[in-house]
Amino acid sequence: MKNVTERTSNPFGLRPPFDLTGPNERTAVFGYGDANADFHLIGDHPGVHGGRTTGVPFTETESGAALQSVLRETGFVDGPADRPDLENLYCSYVHMCCLPDGEAPTDRSYDDLERFFDAELRAINAHILLPVGERATDRVLETYTTQRGRIDLEMPALHATEIRGRGFLIVPIREPSEWIDTERDALAARLEAILGRDYRQTKGVATTVG
Question: Which SUPFAM superfamilies did the record assign (predicted)?
Answer without folding.
Answer: Uracil-DNA glycosylase-like
